[in-house]
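#struct-help
A.M.: can someone run this one for me? Single chain, 95 residues.
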Amino acid sequence: MEEFFERAQAFEQQMRDAQGDLERSVVTGRSADGTVTVLATGLGKLQAVRVDPAVYEQRDAEALQEAIAQAVRAAAANAGRLAEQKMGPVEITLH
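D.P.: on it. Structure tokens below:
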């Protein structure tokens, strides 16, 4: 029984360590056209959104909205892959 608890404690510490690594990690996501880049932590906390200034010359709000959505989805997918590598299957939602 003691061995079981020791293993459980070791596993819990591994998960805490992995979570700490994910909090410090930064992932990116880019829109298909490369005009928008999103940075987020490995846990999905949004850090920054960068927009190519050339987008403003086009004055196409719909295209910009889609580019932002693509970049956010890509960052969430990248965070999910990183989290899965560190912790096993998880679902990441950007917030």
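A.M.: thanks! The chain has a mean pLDDT of 86.
D.P.: also worth noting: The helical segments are 2-24, 54-58, 61-87.
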